[in-house]
Specification:
2 domains, 4-stranded antiparallel β-sheet, binds pyridoxal-5'-phosphate, 11 strands, alpha/beta
Length: about 350
Amino acid sequence: MRADPARYEFASDNTAGICPEAFAALQQANEKNTPAYGEDRWTAHVCDRVRETFETDCDVYLVFNGTAANALSLAQLCQSFHSIICHEYSHLQTDECGAPEFFTKGSKLLLIDGANGKIDIAQAEAVIARQNELHSHKPRVISIGQATEFGTAYTPAEIAAITEFARAGNMFLHMDGARFANAIASLNCPPKAITWQVGVDVLCFGGTKNGAAAGELVVFFNREIAGDFDYRMKQGGQLGSKMRFLAAPWLGLLTDDVWLRNAQHANRLARRLADRLQNEAKIDIVFPVEANAVFVRMGERLVRELHACGWHFYKFIEPDVYRLMCSWATTAEEISDFIADIVALDH
Ligand SMILES: Cc1ncc(COP(=O)(O)O)c(C=O)c1O
């Protein structure tokens, strides 16, 4: 067993570099004197390519990161007295430092439980029923993660059921798609089948975890709610002056299905990691592995020893559930190294 220097392969899908196709596109965009603030041809091409990918006319914006995409798109939908229904383990709730509440100037997150990281509609109904008309925040948006924070994917029918519920209560549907590509790779369906065709109003489409350096798309399928979003981006500090450098890598991803191949690779390796952990190391897998995340139950001693070997990964749920992520860059050898260390530690 090695005592290697720090190894971050499974800590996050953000630890990977920029994929070659995105990097090449970035270099191509590195020309002199190109219009700024999104007036460049790279940004225009990406917006067109997104409309082709989703097979619909939609309004498309580029921001720097996923927290901003979520918070600003929610701010577009909510006033301060509104509420947003989301899973208790959603990124909105656990990892955005209150950005949704901050940018909506006080909207409240209503937290819903549900198996495998998915919102349970019956619970959402019960929580909404407890809202006290004028005296509580008014439910306005349901937000779902696709893929979920637990590495599962909502089926088109599950999303349609949530939309039906949302519409019955005059609510919008927001999708946090930081790993949208992994969900599409998992479900093997056209992007429209889990977005506008099943009623998604706005999608935050993640590029960073898919192979870009930065840059997430905010895609409004419901164009009526997109008005002045560029002003909101600017005020939120998210209007890139050299936007072409956010856009160009997206062009690399959306050409020749690179985004899908990257996600398919990450999902395949996550499946392999889960199978080997289960079969060779007798480790429990906690949630269905449908995207690029593997959640495992591990004892404290094993985790301490793996960390001492150099492997970095994080606890996600108390007391003993850890998350292992695969990315476009994960290799079979890295998985073999990890499994070999676990087996050698003989937990
Ligand atoms: C589900 C989900 N949404 C959004 C984000 C975006 O986060 P960031 O602001 O770090 O780009 C992440 C990143 O980890 C995520 O996992």
